[in-house]
Design a protein that fits this description.
The complex is a heterodimer of chains A (about 375) and B (about 250). Chain A is built from ten helices and 18 strands. Chain A is α/β, with parallel strands linked by helices. Chain A folds into three domains: about 30 residues, no CATH class; about 160 residues, HUPs (Rossmann fold); about 130 residues, Rossmann fold. In chain A, strands 10-9-8-11-7-4-5-6-12 form a nine-stranded mixed β-sheet, with helices on both faces. Chain A has a five-stranded parallel β-sheet with strand order 15-14-16-17-18. In chain A, helix 5 packs parallel to helix 9. The N and C termini of chain A lie far apart (about 90 Å). By secondary structure, chain B is α/β, with parallel strands linked by helices. Chain B has a domain of about 170 residues: Rossmann fold (3-Layer(aba) Sandwich). In chain B, the strands form two sheets. In chain B, strands 9-8-7-10-6-1-4-5-11 form a nine-stranded mixed β-sheet, with helices on both faces. The longest helix of chain B is centred in the C-terminal third of the chain and has 14 residues. Chain B is extended. Classes of the chains: A alpha/beta (about 375), B alpha/beta (about 250). At the A-B interface, helix 2, helix 4, strand 8, strand 9 and strand 10 of A face helix 4, strand 7, strand 8, strand 9 and strand 12 of B. Strand 13 of chain A pairs antiparallel with strand 9 of chain B, so a sheet runs across the interface. Chain A: Pfam families: ETF (PF01012), ETF_alpha (PF00766).
């Protein structure tokens, strides 16, 4: 009676994955599966190309770069074009300013870079001439631009008015062939067909795409506008200490691991950075409440965030979500901030800060050089 | 010899209180009016549309009178405004209207119609002979100084550092003037359908096409950036690693 009862064989055939795990696959005869070795476990495979064959049409994206990189808002504009393009439509990107990053992950198929025309410059007539040449070259169905304050919102409106084309600004919803935007100061939502020029509001597109763009580099437009009615007289920078933390571009922040506040402030002054702090440092009375960064403090969007002695609690990481480059100095290599940071230095905060000050003091030119740049 | 007086116009619109929806003077246009009054004692304050009670607020903010250019319903405000401000040296307005479409394109269209340069996001304006020097807003604490030849259209940024004062006596003293009706081009039939904004707009995201095993693998695979970790070396070497990172990414200029 007992012998007739069906039992699972605990030693039935299995395959061994590269991670050393037994995997029981129905129908398999057992042994070592070579295909599992070829693809290491939990590593995303290279994404497939979105564009199939030669492009039959184009969608255009134009954006200004900052310090050689596009910001998240510009990435969203590229991703929007890639998501809305048909399989035969290529996404052509024109970047004003230098570019040191790969735009394939955001779906860019053709990339043209106009170095020396970044957000610091102001030459609307020249930029409009370049953009118009690009539009003539590709005859795009739509031109997508981020509606921001660093020049893209301005240039997009100039383009629409110059081409006497329809334009949708502050677009909050994109669908194939249709857009929506707020009217009446946010009380009404207006829907309509997608016009030629689409200026996209921030955070309305997801940039995690299941495909990749071809990322081919093409020649930038060579159009030259005659000297115009605008003169750029340069940038005027406000001292970081006089600036609200939310607006600062470089922040040196202190956490529980910092005992010597004057050294930290000296490091911040050497970089021309604003000083921030984590909740622990503020609670201890080392900093005023307005310096606190995180869920209960301020949300910052600096390009560079130097976290000194900050372990990186979730609430703190929430506040630095928008920071582009995070550098951590921490004595604990397994602190959560190391997962967020682009560069983590494991060591005593005080020693590294002193060494940083010594390195900065060895510069060949005086501190005033930064102001004159 | 006194320089010839510049003709300055400020374009104002009827705003909308974001909480109650009540009509009011548009905050951004009040800044434009205040900036205009700081540049010249006499400013033509123009409004295209109906003589709404909210326009009296502009009188309180310093306008001697507000000239109302009548506009039939559904007509484009560009043509009457362009006809009225032709010949002016400086035209100031807010960057974006609080009511209506608020697309922020009117300054650009007006500049094209009048063949003038246009500068937006202006914080401060200084007149230098036949040029205007403008401090422009840029994010992250940066300001850009731009010079533009007059005549020009300048759109004020909402953060322009001005403190307009509301004076009831000047509201009583000022008047709304009605200009003769001009021929306004009717707008083409609008393809836009407006509805009350109750639902949150949907984000654009890729369609999920993976199935089964691939989808579950995608759920556990995290696209971590995997930042560099500097563990070894002296404090000086670690400091140099930080400076190298800042230099390679052009985050510092030394």
């Amino acid at each position: 009676m007992n012998q007739e009862r069906k039992r699972l064989d605990p030693r039935r055939p299995f395959v061994l994955s590269p991670a050393g795990l037994r995997r029981i696959i129905l129908g398999a005869t057992g042994g070592f599966d070579a295909s599992l070795l070829a693809a290491p476990a939990h590593t995303p495979a290279a994404k497939p190309l979105r564009l199939k064959g030669d492009p039959a049409g184009y969608l255009l994206v134009a954006a200004h770069s900052q310090r050689g990189m596009l910001d998240a808002h510009a990435h969203q504009a590229i991703a929007a074009a890639a998501l809305l393009a048909s399989p035969q439509q290529a996404v052509a990107v024109l970047v004003f300013g230098g570019l040191n990053e790969d735009l394939r992950a955001y779906g860019a198929d053709l990339v043209a870079v106009l170095p020396g025309a970044d957000e610091q410059g102001f030459a609307p007539e020249q930029e409009l001439a370049s953009l118009c040449e690009f539009v003539t070259r590709y005859a795009p169905a739509h031109v997508f631009m981020p509606d921001n304050d660093i020049g893209d919102g301005d240039l997009g409106r100039r383009l629409a008015v110059h081409l006497e084309a329809e334009v949708a600004t502050h677009v909050v919803e994109l669908k194939p062939g249709a857009v929506a935007m707020y009217w009446q100061g946010g009380a009404a939502l207006a829907r309509g067909p997608m016009p030629l020029v689409v200026l996209i509001a921030p955070d309305v597109v997801e940039t995690g795409l299941p495909f990749s763009g071809a990322g081919e580099t093409v020649a930038p437009p060579a159009a030259q506008a005659p000297p115009g009615r605008y003169q750029n007289r340069g940038l005027r920078e406000i001292a970081a200490s006089a600036l609200a933390l939310e607006e600062a571009d470089f922040i040196v922040a202190a956490g529980n691991g910092v005992a010597d506040i004057p050294t930290l402030e000296a490091v911040a002054a050497a970089f021309g950075a604003a000083v921030g702090a984590s909740r622990v440092a503020v609670d201890e009375g080392k900093f005023t409440r307005d310096k606190q960064i995180g869920a209960t403090g301020k949300t910052v969007s600096a390009s560079t965030y130097l976290a000194v002695g900050i372990s990186g609690a979730v609430q703190h990481l929430q506040g630095i979500k928008a920071c582009r480059h995070v550098i951590a100095i921490n004595s604990d290599a397994s602190a959560p901030i190391t997962k967020r940071a682009d560069l983590s230095v494991v060591g005593d905060a005080q020693e590294v800060m002193t060494a940083l000050l010594a390195e900065l003091a060895q510069r060949n030119w005086p501190d005033t050089a930064r102001e004159s740049v | 010899m006194m320089p010839p007086q510049l003709k300055i116009a400020a374009l104002v619109s009827v705003g909308r209180n974001p909480a109650s929806g009540a009509p009011r003077a548009a905050r951004n246009d009040v800044l434009a009016l205040d900036a205009a009054l700081a540049l010249a004692p006499e400013v033509s304050v123009l409004h295209a549309g109906d003589a709404a009670p909210a326009l009296y607020d502009y009188l309180a903010y310093g306008a001697a009178n507000v000239e109302v250019l009548p506009l039939p319903a559904g007509a484009d405000a560009l043509a009457p405004l362009a006809a009225r401000v032709a010949g002016y040296d400086l035209i100031l307005c807010g960057q974006r209207a609080e009511a209506g479409q608020g697309s922020g394109t009117l300054p650009y269209r007006l500049a094209k119609a009048l063949n003038m340069p246009v500068v937006s996001a202006a914080l401060e304006i200084t007149l230098l002979g036949d040029e205007a020097e403008i401090v422009q807003f840029l994010p992250k604490g940066q300001r850009r100084v731009v010079r533009v030849s007059l005549p020009a259209v300048i759109a004020l940024h909402p953060l322009a550092p001005r403190a307009p004062r509301y004076v009831y006596a000047s509201l009583r003293a000022g008047r709304l003037l009605s200009a003769p009706a001009l021929v306004a081009a009717p707008l083409p039939a609008s393809p836009w359908q407006s509805e009350p904004a109750v639902k949150k707009p949907q984000r654009l995201k890729p369609l999920e096409t993976r199935q089964g095993h691939a989808r579950l693998l995608g759920a556990i695979a995290t696209e971590s950036k995997g930042g560099a970790l500097v563990r070894e070396g002296s404090a000086a070497e670690k400091a140099r690693a930080i400076l190298d990172y800042l230099r390679t990414n052009r985050l510092i200029e030394f």
